[in-house]
Give the backbone structure.
Amino acid sequence: MDLDALTGCLASPACLVTQTTSGFIIGMLLFLVAVGLTLIFGVLKIVNFSHGAFYMFGAYFAMTAYQVSGSFALAMLCGALGTAVLGLVFERVFMSRVYGADVLMQLLVCYAFVLIFDDVVRMVWGPEFKSMGMPAAFQVMPLFIAGGVVPPYYLLLIGVALAMAVILGVGLARSRIGKVIRAAAHNPGMVSALGINPGLIYGGVFALGCMLAGLAGALAAPVRSLTPGMGFSVLIESFIVTVIGGMGSILGALIGALLIGLIRSFGSLGFPLFTEGLMYLFMVIVLVTRPTGLFGKEVA
Amino acid sequence: MTRIRKPGLSRRSTLALIGAGAATFAAPWVARAQAKTIKIGMPTILSGRVAQLGTSSRNAVLLEIDKVNAAGGLAGRQVEMVIRDSKGQPQEAARIARELVNTDGCEMLLDGEASSGSFAVHEVARDLGVLCIHTCSEASSLTADPKQHIPNAFRSVRQGIHDSIVGGSYAAAIAKAKGLKKWATCSPDYAYGRDTTGEFTLYLKRFAPDVEIISDSWPKLFQPDYTEVVTKILQAKPQALYSCLWGGDLTSYIDQANIYAMFSQMEVFAVNMADYTALTVVKNLPKGIHSGNRYIKTFPATPENAAWGDAYKAKYNEYPTNWSWQNATAVMLLAEAVKKAGSADGNKVADALRGLTIKCPFGADGTVTMRAEDQTLIGYAIGWGTTISQEPYVPQVQAGDWKTILELEAEWKKSKGYT
Amino acid sequence: MTELRAVQTGGSLSVPRVETKSQRARSLDALIALTAFIVLALLPSFFGSKALLDFVIRCSAFGLFATSLNLLVGYTGMISFGHGMFFGIGAYSFGLLMQRAGVSIPVAFVAALLITAIAAAIIGAICVRLKAIYFAFVTLAFQMLIHSTILAWASLTGGDQGLRGGIPRPVFLGVDLSNHLHLYVTSCALLVLGLLLMRQIAQSPFGYTLRMIRDNANRASFVGIDVWRAKLTVFVLAAMFASAGGIVMALFVSGAYPEFAYWTMSGEGIFINMLGGVTTFLGPMVGTVLLLTLNDTVTRLTDYYGIVLGIVILFFAIGLRKGLMDFAVGWYTRWREREHG
């Protein structure tokens, strides 16, 4: 514990700004990764425990596409679309069989695939860790914004994250598609009576959630090493964020992610050896005082 | 007529699995019939995030065993390696170690486990009395701590304390030359990370007393996002940074620190940088990172070492790792010890191993020694230098002096209450 | 005689008929337990294989753990994702007491159970009132918190390297646990005793209370049952049996490692329950044997254990949709129905 460092920082405006900026950045990166998980839960009421595996695939697809083509945009596209397709297939063939079953069954099916996917990646790409490398376009000096240091690449990520937040948040609440989706989740029979295939909607939403995970993986690939099993740490992080923010709430995921970002940022000053424990403690406190999370709605 | 696909295991594969299971139980009887071969068991990690540890260890062992077998085997018996995956779970490591000895008839163990796994296998070695050479665990306490001493367990691995002594004195020289007084550390939060960093700092300050550690960060192993660590370091404005991050973590850290332009603001001493796994993977390697050697085929700059590295690369199409040379050395030591003892009996080989010096391509002076007092490896090539982003990666390595290393190590052991 | 009269004339709230039957059932259970123990104890004389003994010892550790989890999942409907934390707490408590306090093994055993019970009582008091999925999440969160603490508190627990140096095994009552055979027989005894006790709990009126809570907690509370207290009680009891499993494992590996308290341990408990089935008492035991056999066989043959395990899980979760014992019992019931018209 190093409380002096923490209080010292809170007292100094320069440090406060830098740590807050860094907490903001961490939070946005977390949100980008976690939003797919909360979307799937919000609409389909299932916890996608294989979320991390799709993140992993997004990263690997992107890396391979980049190595083959040299184009960053193509790499991102491959990462996103590849996982969308994978997610759709996974949902239609396997997940759809365990809708309505208890959470244990969902966990088992998802976890079975995490095991399988991790080994598949190991077989195809090998066990050693790999790196995609930063595209030349982003190999520039960091910017100084509002007293904090921000690498331009992270600006891109934050931009994408915010765009996602707005599109999904507003889209689900206001747009017609959003209403149809929410209706299908609530009462599939009614929706199919109206001539809309609920299975298509479920598949679509799941694919979207996986695509978001894959896109996050693809975007993270230039700055993080790739290895089979890399999905696990992001799964846990995403989990914490969505539980704290409220399963199913896009706004909740955003706020939850920012909170965790700040905890990590300031926590690493005050509690350098127990930063992770702090996050779990916070998760416990939220679950105990407000189980549905800060912005979540009651689950049936 | 369409065939309906049933999910899960087909009948054929179920039968195959049952057959395999039956064969496995029958195996001991079959094994006994082949008493001419000598089996050596090797629990290691072949899956999960640290799979590379196991695969590169296995590669090196098989490479060396082929040579041993070609030269007549151990005490005239051909060697058969039985290598199993513990998935990095210590209770699996213990179970596999026991099974290798009790069921599969292995007469000795090469333990390719790390961290908690190696301690678990150590207890099995203590319990069963089987000859065991640890090849991957760098935890000093495994051999330094008298509570861990058992006559039949040896270690053919570099030690964190040795790396820290050499690194500390190398870094101190540079610190004094360039006036680097303010240092930060950033190391993974587990025993290896904390112990090695603590020891490095100890020796750095001993040789350059003006040095002050103004910031320390302890990210978790396999942590994906280092943002808070990088910003904390940048804020502290150190003149130099020490890190014992390794593997994928080191790569991620470099990638993330790069976009913050961290490397232009301080000298970086990353003890695990000069390892082919990191050197060939990092895409934008900053110039001038100081690093200790892990495995580099140009250090020691001998034809034997280069030949070994090339042979490994030719056979496996990848560079050797630090784990590779350690495993290879273990096999070399074993072969010599068996020759010296004239038998493959565990106890006799153990006696022969104690204090044994062998010719070795990875030795600082062409030889390495299995020190008798704590049954661990000394005399291996150890040094520091700066890295560049293409072959030979570390053009000039400053070798550590083993006389100094051993003196300081003895002092350190006394201070820890180990002697 | 008076009791029988009460039965015959009895009012609407009569209980006695269940009593006699349960007494018979209890004796039958005890008899089965004794037979099982004798068979297991005699096993080494027929099969000299040390691997078989190791296998049974591990079955004991995992069997106790998984069956205790079933008390929560199958009998009470409380899906805990973090049950492994008690396995770990048991192992560490026992290991630390033996290494540092120099007490005898039975004392350390009981003390470790008590420590786990206290921890479970505190955690349970916070958790058990939460519903279904939130209970699952919070147990997982607590487990990760405890795992983090084990790693961070290195001066006590040895951190990521675990408790090193081996667990001392002073002889007690003529039992020397450093002797493989003694360890084997003791593990069998603990397993059989543990299962017997859990069986008694499951078949007791308390056990039926739990089933009632599982089926409809609201209705149970309307009948006057203190649901919170019942849940807390079974949570603590399950934790104690899990910790007994942890102690067996600690003795087997002669140490305690953070992996014992990691979520992968809870995951194994869940797989075992799924493989064996949660609707029968011995389902988890069958699942234990199944998972361990699968593990041991597959890791001999390939490095890609993940794919095989994943496929097996899918087979049970989507194909069979129930555990092996559930399947077997279902088959048997249907066969009987066919036989008897």
Observations:
- The radius of gyration of chain C is 21 Å.
- Chain C touches chain A at residues 73, 79, 81, 126-127, 130-134, 136-138, 141-142, 144-145, 148-149, 152, 267, 270-271, 274, 304-307, 309-311, 313-314, 316-318 (CB under 8 Å).
